[in-house]
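Quick log. Single chain, no ligands specified.
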Amino acid sequence: MKTMASYYQERTDRTFNLSLQTITEVWAAQEYFRRVGKMLNQFGSYANKKVTLNDKRLQLQKFIDKYMPKPSDRIFGTRHCFLIKGGKAKGGEDEWMSQSPLVRGYRMPTDYTGTDKQYAYAHSAKYPNSGNKSGFGRLGNKWEPFNVWEEMGVRKWISMLASKVVDHETHEEIPEIQPECGDILKQQVVTPPETFAKQEEIGSTLVQITKQEVELKYAYRECVNDYTYGKDLDRFFPQHRHSCLFPTTCEFLPICYGQDWKGDPVPTQVREDPIGSGLFTWRVAHHEQERKALNADN
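-> predicted structure:
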């Protein structure tokens, strides 16, 4: 399960067909189930030795088969489920606002006389319109954007987007809000076809990752033992300048170029002592398995 700003079927599907994660996830799942299978086999052997009564042994075996079935020896592929969170637009000087229809909507007053205004609601500024040359139309000037969490709360908004009415012509259920856009909720959750990893790809990838990690560990020790900016970093960690600004600005730009992410100069201390400068901090592991692995490795 992943989030992404937008989904482009051919490009996104091909990207994830070739991605490292589709290989490592399959390998990790195989290793997990291999350990589970080994544990169950050991438990069964132990039980057979300790349980002497045949009927008790059969009952125990039925219990194992029902509640602890032996997993498959092989995981064949990966199925991705994407939550489309939408792009971002600038909402202030240093503020970027998500444009997802799940948290941002549009409203237009329909009652101008009452103290409590009544509104018509929409989730998309752009909608299909076959009458236009482009095939799309846009909401008029009377419509204004609003933040769902400030207007009514996300739960109520999702319920409104999910509500259906019966079309008088087709007698089918259609969304109550902007039916011309289709089911907007389903469009925010995309499950493309499964991707399959070949065993030879998994083996090849593990060799590559292992070699990289061994080299990184050696390079890290060399840098820590005798740290001088430039000498060891240049030898062990060459810059990849094509990645400095694309697809996003590199978080280590101030160290390499002496300027912050806006292009303003920073003190030389940032390069000599990134942590001591206060501009950087040690990364904190936020996955349990990662924390355990790091603690085991001290």
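Residues 78 and 286 are 23 Å apart (CA to CA).
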